[in-house]
Design a protein that fits this description.
The structure holds three protein chains of three kinds. Chain A is α/β, with parallel strands linked by helices. Chain A has seven helices and four strands. Chain A is globular. The radius of gyration of chain B is 23 Å and the shape is globular. Classes of the chains: A alpha/beta, B mainly alpha, C alpha/beta.
C-alpha cells in the first residue's frame, strides 16, 4: 500500500486550516471511533467487560460505544469459545455488519480453539469469518486487548479508502471453510 | 404463583379483533441481557409472554469428554472456565471431590483448608458483584455495574498476587494448593473485606429503596418453594424462596463449621428477594473472610503424601524416592482407587457437584458436572409465562446464571 | 433418620428390585434391578422418604460390557439432610427407560441431556430433544466409542462440525490405559477412529 498517509499537523505551516489527503482524514475518523460489537461468548467476555469498565476504560481509545446491534458497529470483538453450534450465528452477525468492518479474535479460544480441542468447539473463528487482529492469552489481560485495539487502529489507518470507491463493488471474499459449508456435496455420515 | 397479568380487554369482541396471532420472538443467543449465549424463544400475546422455551448449549465445549481424556490434575484449569465468575470456588469444589474419592478429606492440613475457605468466599463476593452489576445494568442502572467493577478489580489484584492470573486461577491442587499465601496478602485481603462492605452499602443505597428498581423487581418472577425444590434450584435462588438449605451449614466441608455466619433467606421468592439475599451473602462472606484471617494457623498447606502432592523440588533433586514420586505423578497422575463419589459444594450460583466414577488409574472414567446454572435455568418455561416481555431481563438477571457452567 | 435407615426402608418396600445399600466414602448406593419400576421408586423416595431434591442424573457408558448403560440418580433429602444414590442398568438393545420428570420437574432437562450425550431414550418424556448439541447432530458424543476430536457433520444453515486436530496433543492421555507407555498420546495414531 503506497498511500500510507497519516494525518499530520504542522502548526508552523498550517494555522486554522489543515491540508491532508482524504484517505488520511477518513481513516483518522474511522480509527478513533471504532464501535465494537461485543461478541461475548465465554470467559473472555468477562475481561472484555473489565476492559470497558472503570479501571481500564476502553473509551480512552474511542471504542467505548458497545453496540449489540451489528448494524451500528465497526469491529466485532469475538471474546470466547466459538462452538460449532454458535459458529454460524457469529458468521451471520458478522455478515449483518455494515462495511467497513473488522474483527478482533480475543483469546486463545477465538483464535485457535485454545484448550478446547474437542468435538464441540470450532478451532478458531477464522474458519468462518476473516480476522484482523489475534490477541493471545487465556484470557488476554485488558491491556493486551487494548494493545490489540491499537494495532487494529494502526491497520485501519493504512487502509486505502478513496481509491476503493472508484472500483466497482466486489463480492466479499469469504474464507475457505465457510465456502466448503455451502457446497451441497457434503454428505452427512451415518452415526 | 402470582396472578397472571392480563392485557386490558374491554369487551370480548374487540379483544378478539385486537388479539390476532401470537408473536414468536427470538431472543439471543447474542443478546445483551442473556449474559452470554442463552437463547430464548418466547411466544407473545401482545406484551405478555404465553410460552417460553430456553435453548442452551451454545457454549457446550465438551468438558466432560475432555475430563475422561486427561489426568485429574490436568482438569483443574478446565474447572476455572465453568463458572468463570468464581473460578477459585470451582477449583476448590473439584479438588474436594477428588480428595473425597482418594479418602483424603480428614487428613487435610488446617491452614490449607482455611485458605480454601477464603478463596471460596472471595469468589462468592466477586460473582455476586458481577451478577448484581449486570442485573442492575439490564434493568437500567449503569452506575452499579461500574461500582461493582471497581471492587472486582481489587479481587482480581488479590487473585493475581495469589495465583498469577486475574481469574483463570487454577489455584488448588489435589491434596492442597499450588502455593501458600504470599507475604502480606492477609492484610490486603482484610483491607479489601473492609472496603467491599462500604461499596456494598453504597450499592444498597443506590438500589434497595430506589423506586424504579423496586417496581421492576418486586413481585416479578415469583418462585414458590415447592416449585423451586421440584426444579432442583439451589443456592441463592432457592434460599430467596425461603428454603433453608446451604451446604456450608447442612454438611460443613472445609472449616465452615469453625466460622460464624448467617444464611439469609427470602420470603417471597421474587427478583427483589433474590437481590436482597445476594447482598446479604456478600456481607456474610466478608465476615467469614475476616474470621478465617483471624484464625489462620501456621503450618503446611499440602497434605503429606508423596503419592498425591508433588514433593519439594530440592528433595526431588537429591532423593531417589521423591524423584520416583515426582515422575509417577507427572506421567501417570494421582493414582485414584476404583469407586464413585458425588461431592457438592455451595458455590455462588448454587450447588456445584462433581460426580466422579473411577475405575482406578490416573484418569476419571466418567466425570459429571452438576452445574447449578443449568438446573436453575430449567425453571424458565414455567416462570416466564404471564410476565411482560420487559420483565424477562429482570428475571434473567436475578437468576444469575453463567453459560460456561450451564453448557459445560 | 439417617441415610442408612432410609435406604433400608426403600429396600423393605421394594424387596425384589432394590439391592442392599453399599457404602463408599460415606455415601450410600442402592441398585435398582428393574428399571421399569423407576417411577414408583422415585415417587416413594419423594413422598414417603422425603427425598425432595433430585440433585443430578448421570449416565455411564460401560463400553464393551453388558449391560452397556448405567443410569445414576443422586437424591437429597432436605428434611433428613441425607444423600442417596440409585443406580440402574440398561442394556444397549433396550436403551430406554421410563422418565421421572412427573415426579421432579428438574429431571426433564437432565434426561434431555442424557439423550443428547448418550442416546438413551426416556419413555413418557414430554419433550425429548437434544439440548446441548443442535437438533440434527448425528452422533452421541459422550459414548466411549466416539472420539474426543469429534466427527465431521453438516446441517446447512444450522451448524457443522469438523474433526479437531489433536495432533496426538500433549494434553490428551488415553483413558483407562494400563501403564504410562500406553497412556502416552503419541503412541496412538493421530485422528484415529476411537
Ligand atoms: S481463551 Fe481462555 S479465557 Fe478466553 S474464552 Fe477461551 S478458555 Fe475462556
Amino acid at each position: 500500500m503506497k498511500q500510507a498517509a497519516e494525518i499530520q499537523y504542522d502548526s508552523r505551516l498550517e494555522g486554522d486550516l489543515v491540508v491532508t489527503r482524504l484517505d488520511a482524514a477518513i481513516n483518522w475518523f474511522r480509527k478513533n471511533s471504532l464501535w465494537p460489537m461485543p461478541m461475548g461468548l465465554a470467559c473472555c467476555a468477562i475481561e472484555l467487560m473489565a476492559t470497558g469498565a472503570s479501571r481500564f476504560d476502553i473509551s480512552r481509545f474511542g471504542a467505548e460505544v458497545m453496540r449489540f446491534s451489528p448494524r451500528q458497529s465497526d469491529v466485532m470483538i469475538v471474546a470466547g469459545t466459538v462452538t460449532y453450534k454458535m459458529a454460524l450465528v457469529v458468521k451471520r452477525i458478522y455478515d449483518q455488519m455494515a462495511d467497513p468492518k473488522w474483527v478482533i479474535a480475543m483469546g486463545a479460544c477465538a483464535s485457535t480453539g485454545g484448550m478446547y480441542r474437542s468435538y464441540a468447539v470450532l478451532q478458531g473463528v477464522d474458519r468462518v469469518i476473516p480476522v484482523d487482529v489475534y490477541v493471545a492469552g487465556c484470557p488476554p489481560r485488558p491491556e493486551a486487548l487494548l494493545d490489540g485495539l491499537i494495532k487494529l487502529q494502526a491497520k485501519v489507518a493504512r487502509e486505502p479508502v478513496a481509491s476503493v470507491w472508484k472500483q466497482p463493488p466486489q463480492e466479499p471474499v469469504r474464507p475457505a471453510a465457510a465456502l466448503a459449508l455451502d457446497a451441497p456435496t457434503q454428505a452427512v455420515p451415518k452415526p | 404463583m402470582k396472578t397472571v397479568r392480563q392485557v386490558v380487554q374491554p369487551d370480548p369482541a374487540a379483544a378478539a379483533e385486537l388479539q390476532g396471532d401470537r408473536l414468536v420472538l427470538n431472543m439471543g443467543p447474542s443478546h445483551p441481557s442473556t449474559h452470554g449465549v442463552l437463547r430464548l424463544i418466547v411466544e407473545l400475546d401482545g406484551e405478555v409472554i404465553t410460552k417460553a422455551q430456553p435453548d442452551v448449549g451454545y457454549l457446550h465445549r465438551g468438558d466432560e469428554k475432555i475430563a475422561e481424556n486427561m489426568t485429574y490434575t490436568q482438569f483443574i484449569p478446565y474447572t476455572d472456565r465453568l463458572d468463570y465468575l468464581a473460578p477459585l470456588a470451582n477449583n476448590v469444589a473439584y479438588v474436594l471431590a477428588v480428595e473425597k474419592l482418594l479418602g483424603l478429606t480428614d487428613r487435610m492440613p488446617l491452614r490449607g483448608q482455611y485458605i480454601r475457605v477464603i478463596c471460596c468466599e472471595l469468589a462468592r463476593i466477586s460473582a455476586h458483584l458481577l451478577g448484581l452489576g449486570a442485573f442492575a445494568m439490564d434493568v437500567g442502572a449503569m452506575t452499579v455495574f461500574l461500582y461493582a467493577s471497581t471492587q472486582r478489580e481489587k479481587i482480581y489484584n488479590l487473585c493475581e498476587s495469589l495465583t498469577g492470573a486475574r481469574f483463570t486461577t487454577s489455584y488448588t491442587r489435589i491434596g492442597g494448593l499450588a502455593r501458600d499465601l504470599p507475604e502480606g496478602w492477609g492484610e490486603q485481603c482484610r483491607q479489601f473485606a473492609a472496603e467491599v462492605i462500604v461499596a456494598i452499602n453504597e450499592i444498597e443505597q443506590l438500589l434497595t429503596r430506589n423506586r424504579i428498581w423496586v417496581e421492576r423487581t418486586r413481585d416479578i418472577g415469583v418462585i414458590r418453594p415447592d416449585a423451586a425444590i421440584s426444579y432442583g434450584l439451589t443456592g441463592p435462588n432457592l434460599r430467596a424462596s425461603g428454603v433453608d438449605h446451604d451446604l456450608r451449614k447442612a454438611h460443613p466441608y472445609l472449616v465452615y463449621d469453625r466460622v460464624q455466619f448467617d444464611v439469609p433467606l427470602g420470603s417471597v421468592g421474587d427478583c427483589y428477594d433474590r437481590y436482597l439475599v445476594r447482598m446479604e451473602e456478600m456481607r456474610q462472606s466478608a465476615r467469614i473472610i475476616n474470621q478465617c484471617l483471624d484464625q489462620l494457623p501456621d503450618g503446611p498447606v499440602n497434605v503429606e503424601d508423596g503419592k498425591v502432592v508433588l514433593p519439594p523440588k530440592a528433595r526431588v533433586m537429591t532423593r531417589m524416592e521423591e524423584l520416583i514420586h515426582q515422575f509417577m505423578l507427572v506421567t501417570q497422575g494421582v493414582n485414584v482407587p476404583p469407586g464413585e463419589v458425588y461431592f457438592g459444594a455451595e458455590n455462588p450460583k448454587g450447588e456445584l457437584g462433581f460426580y466422579i466414577h473411577s475405575r482406578g488409574g490416573g484418569t476419571p472414567y466418567r466425570l459429571k458436572i452438576r452445574a447449578p446454572s443449568f438446573v436453575n435455568l430449567s425453571i424458565l418455561p414455567e416462570l416466564l409465562p404471564g410476565h411482560m416481555m420487559s420483565d424477562v431481563v429482570a428475571i434473567l438477571g436475578s437468576l444469575d446464571f453463567v453459560m460456561g457452567e450451564c453448557d459445560r | 433418620m439417617n441415610a442408612r435407615d432410609l435406604a433400608r426402608q426403600l429396600r423393605i418396600h421394594f424387596l425384589h428390585s432394590v439391592t442392599e445399600p453399599a457404602e463408599f466414602r460415606g455415601e450410600l448406593t442402592v441398585r435398582l434391578t428393574e428399571p421399569s419400576q423407576l417411577p414408583e421408586v422415585a415417587g416413594f423416595l419423594r413422598d414417603e422418604l422425603k427425598f425432595d431434591l433430585l440433585l443430578d442424573v448421570t449416565s455411564l457408558d460401560n463400553y464393551g460390557e453388558d449391560p452397556r448403560w448405567t443410569l445414576v440418580y443422586e437424591f437429597y433429602s432436605l428434611a433428613h439432610r441425607a444423600h442417596l444414590r440409585l443406580k440402574t442398568d440398561v442394556s444397549e438393545e433396550v436403551s430406554e427407560l421410563p422418565t421421572i420428570c412427573r415426579v421432579w420437574r428438574t429431571a426433564e432437562w437432565h434426561e434431555r441431556e442424557i439423550y443428547d450425550m448418550m442416546g438413551i431414550r426416556f419413555t413418557g418424556h414430554p419433550d425429548l430433544r437434544r439440548i446441548l448439541m443442535w437438533e440434527g447432530y448425528p452422533y452421541f458424543p459422550l459414548r466411549k466409542d466416539f472420539p474426543l476430536e469429534g466427527r465431521p457433520s453438516a446441517m446447512p444453515e444450522v451448524a457443522f462440525s469438523e474433526r479437531a486436530p489433536l495432533e496426538g496433543g500433549p494434553f490428551v492421555t488415553a483413558p483407562g490405559a494400563k501403564d504410562a507407555i500406553r497412556r502416552e498420546p503419541r503412541v496412538r495414531r493421530p485422528g484415529g477412529e476411537g
